[in-house]
Structures are given as structure tokens and as C-alpha cells.
Request: fold
Amino acid sequence: MLKQGLQQRLLQKLSPIQIQIIKLLEIPTTQLEQRIKEEMEINPVLEYDEAKSKDEYSDESDSEENDQESDDFSIDEYIKDDYIPSYKLYSNNYSKDDKQEEIPFSTGTTFHEHLVAQVGLRIFDDRQKEIAEYIVGNIDEDGYLRREITEIADDLAFNQGMEVDENEVINVLNIVHDFDPPGVGAIDLRECLLLQLERKDHSIPAIDTAYKILNELFNAFTRKHFEKISKRLHISDMELKEAMDEILKLNPKPGSSYSNPMSKSVHHIIPDFILEEDENNRFHLMLNNRNVPELRISRTYSDMLGEYQANKKNSTRQQKEAVMFVKQKLDSAKWFIDAIRQRQDTLMMVMNAIMEVQNDFFMEGDEGKLKPMILKDISDRTNLDISTVSRVSNSKYIQTQFGIFPLKFFFSEGLQTDTGEEVSTREIKKILEDCIMNEDKRKPLTDDKLAHILKEKSYSIARRTIAKYREQLNIPVARLRKEL
Reply:
């Protein structure tokens, strides 16, 4: 049985401008220009300020009374001549002498086109050719066959109507294994490397030994159990080293050399902030708004409301509906411009707070000068919510005299030394990197030894913490770092 009733609830809702600010804070400079273009496409009230007017924008509060009656709203705020944003989205931080050259590049045949072309060069009947083309179609960009033989046979039966057995597929695959580049069509790394060695001269002892290592002792090879390999094959350390050198010459991803550069996504870093230092060693922080246009509200639509105000008594229903549409777009445009202004202010506020904490680093560029800093530290300094600081620091970069750094680079946890001094975990990781870089590769340092070395430097860190830092640095365990 359905019942109707009234109840009161207290809810917190974000205003339109708050929603705009949150969304704009997350996007970096590289995407801001595109976001502005998208907004201009859906809102005809927004337009480029080609005159680059420097008049100040009067920040007027939004009135909820405007949403009540179409005849009761005031259009004064929409038709003021000084309704122009105070911030500059366009920045003259470059000179007319700057060169903007487009570097052309040429691209040849793609990897899969190269394989399909080789199918046509082989002596295949129609049935074998169709199987070969299907196999080639299941080879990924690295050159590996990512489909099981049984699955290929089933696919050909269901999709192509061809009844083929597994042996027929294997016979065609063996021919594909002769294609260039060597190793193409392998199902795993071991087969890929073996296919490449099969094309080499096995009368050379090092090549023959390398083939035996991969064929018979692949697990020991991946685990770098060199003593076990030498003992099983009855070879000396020198012979093992020569065989390993031959293996290292092989390509684990044979398809990579044929990849189309246009098919790969290239990530271009455009800094959101530019930090410059003058002759007096004073810093000047700027937002990089070089490609971001300045916006203003179109006078055409403001004049339209002005005409409606003058002839309000004689206006028709269609005219009222049109004016209400324009008013909504004007409100939306105003919110968007305000949101961009607040985005710029928030970005600068957060970046200035980061510079205050990490001033020593910006002065010298020494990573060891970085202080422990977490999101809450910046939140406390700026009185912004931690989530806001997180949005600002995500996917943003700053250009300094020492290079371009992501804002996340400046955040790290703290650790106390035996003397009570608080240091950044980034400094600990830097010490670990230096120790591993300078270690004897024949006897790499274990996590226990690394912990002992750090303890001698007054850093009391547990072995499991060392392992965590090492994994964060993408450094393998000591056994896998071992070399001959």
C-alpha cells in the first residue's frame, strides 16, 4: 500500500561553481585549453577576449531570487561594461623570438602489415593462407601469439566455418615462426629466445651453450642460479659468461622494432607552473597559461537582455522563453569564469605553500634537501581541504632551473634518525639507490645488508621496510641483480 508523507532532511549540496572548481582543479594545463573550448561549444555566451582587456572583473554574488520569476530578475549584472574577469588566462611569459618548429617524422609499414605481407610471399594454399592470416591477426605488438592453439582451431571453426585440427594449425604456425623478425609468433619468452637462437650458427660454442641453457635450464636462468647452470652443463665461468652475453643480445620483444610510432601514445609534459629566479636570488612563480585563452561574456547576449528590459511589457511568450535561456547561459558562463579564477588562485596558493616548505630544495636543487611533507602539512598552511590539495598536486608539474618535477615529487613521509633528526624517506631511497648502484654485482647486497648499512648511517630501518622502499624504486631482489 502506497502512502504519501512529508519529511524534512538537512542535506549538503555543492553549488554549480563548487562543482566547476572541483572538476577544473583536477585537470592539468595540457587539458585546460580543451576544456575551455568544450565549454564554449555548449555555451554561446562565452567568447574569446581578443582585445585582451585589462578591466577588472566585478565579483558579484549570485542571487537565488533570479531563479524565481522570469520577470523579476535584474539584468544589471549582465550588461555592465566592466563585467570582465580580473585574471589573465593569457600570459606573456614568452617573447616573439621564440621559435615554434614542427618536427616532421615519417612512418613506414606497421608490424602487422609486415607480417601479412610475408604471408603472401610464402607458398600457401587457400586453406593454409587463411589459417596463417588468422594466426598473424592474433600476434600482439610485442610479437607474441596470445591465443592457444585449441582456441585458434575453435575460432576458425565457428567464425570461418573451417574444420581444422590442432596439428594443421601447428604446421602453419611453424612456418610463421620463420617470418621476420626472428622470434615472432612465440607463445612465451622462452620460445621467443629459442626461435632466435635457432637461426644462429650452433657451431659456435657460446651459441650452442646459450641454446642449452634456455632449452634445458630456463628456470635456473631466470633465477640467475649461475652455479647450478655451470655444474649441470660442466662449463667454466668464462664459457657461461660468453653464453649469457649471447642471450643478452636477443630481443625479448621482437615486434617492438616494427611498431608504428603513431600507434604509441606519447606523453608530453607541459609544466603548470614556471619558477624563475632573478639576480637577487628571489623566486617568481607564474602559472603557465601560454595556450589558454582569456574569456569574456558576449556583449551580444547582454544587449539582448537589455532590449528585453526596455520592452518587457510588450514581450511575447517566445521572447520570454528565449530570454530565460540566455539568462541560464549567462549564469553558467559566469560560474565557469569564476571557477577558472578560483582554480588559478587555489593552484598558486598550494604551490606557494609547497615552496615555503621545500625552499632549500628550490634554492640548491639537492634532493637530499627535501623535507618530510604530506598533504596535511599543505592543508594546514592553506586552510584548504586535504582532498583539494590532492587534486591540485595530481598530474601537475613545475618547471625550475633544475628541471621539471611533478608536484607529487615534493611529498614524502618523515623518518627520525638515531639523533632525533627528521628526514624525508626520499633521502633514504636515494641512499639505497646509491648503495645498489655501487654494489659488487657478483655479490649483490641483500636487504639485511642494506639495513645494516643504513643503520651505520643512523637510519634504523627494518628489513621489511627496506624491501618496501626497494620495490617502490623498481629494484629487484639481490638474487636477480646478480651478474657474472
